[in-house]
Amino acid sequence: MDNQEPKHQRRIRYKGTHPKAFHEKYKELQPEKYADAVAKVIQKGSTPAGMHRSICVNEILEILQITPGQTGLDATLGYGGHTLEILKCLDSKGHLYSLDVDPIELPRTRERLEHLGYGPEILTIKQMNFSQIDQVALETGPLNFILADLGVSSMQIDNPERGFTYKSEGPLDLRLNPDRGISAAQRLKTISQEELQGMLLENADEPYSAEISRAIILEFKKGNDIVTTTKLQQVITDALKFIPQGDRNDAIKKSCQRCFQALRIDVNNEFEVLYDFLEKLPATLASGGRVAILTFHSGEDRLVKKSFKHFYREGIYREIAPEPIRPSPSECNSNSRARCAKLRWAIKS
Ligand SMILES: C[S@@+](CC[C@H](N)C(=O)[O-])C[C@H]1O[C@@H](n2cnc3c(N)ncnc32)[C@H](O)[C@@H]1O
Questions:
Q1: Domain 57-154+271-348 belongs to what architecture?
Q2: Each residue of 5-41: pLDDT tens digit?
Q3: Residue 238: closest CA among 258, 260, 262, 214
């Protein structure tokens, strides 16, 4: 008889059906491999993880009236959706320059576009802030068209490591370029209650700016840090406990969205860079050149509207959008991120 105990076998580590890491989580992150999964997600009105669905594509192309041989700029490359449509209009003639500040997504988009056959002979991609459009224009010469699709891409929002959303645990960063400036967590550490309240009001019209800024500063006074997205969400949730129960959850969700937006605008100096861009725009456009700008909140839209009106009155723009164009109801239904978009345009004299 063999008395020997069976040799202990090490259990094979089982990953489980619920992958933990973002990159393991969604089939959509490999769109080539899981085309059906991607199509299903889009059909449900959502954006597949790791992708961005471009907004108002037809409306933008109608405004820009791109013809082969022209030179233009996509100031916000993102996933490259608009860039790709513009390249199709150029039909291998002319040149497109595309910018983005994001050092993480930009190489991925460049590779994707190169795979589709758009290399440096037709497309120049630069990691640059669009506030430096005057420097880009030194290389491009007068531009026939310019597009800016402001804000963040779905890939940036969906990646918890970037900290753009309270919906998933991650570092409270919110920088479009994490190599520059300070994170939202560092910013909160040094800000006064008064300044924070002003930031929440100015950048996001937050109705509970007083309560939330008081709660955040109190948290630091207690010796606690706020370095993750979920910790900030918790502080906001606790600060709004006084709201009657029936309305509370919805109010908390909206305040979280607005507070994250306010912080993002602040750490990326979004109003300042947009102002610089708008000021430098006319000088970079050729005569008859067209610009289209897609905004996602009232603060951005106000700046664009004011600048277009100002240069129109000065005779620098010969025509501007009388009213902002909104995405069609069917686009809003199929892509919830389109709902708050406003599109304005101008044509240089
Ligand atoms: C809404 S996404 C653009 C999506 C793109 N139009 C598409 O179709 O895929 C906005 C992009 O602009 C970039 N961005 C935001 N502010 C910028 C700035 N000041 N300079 C350059 N890029 C900026 C963001 O990093 C993000 O990738």
A1: 3-Layer(aba) Sandwich (3.40)
A2: 545 555 444 343 344 454 555 455 556 555 666 666 6
A3: 214
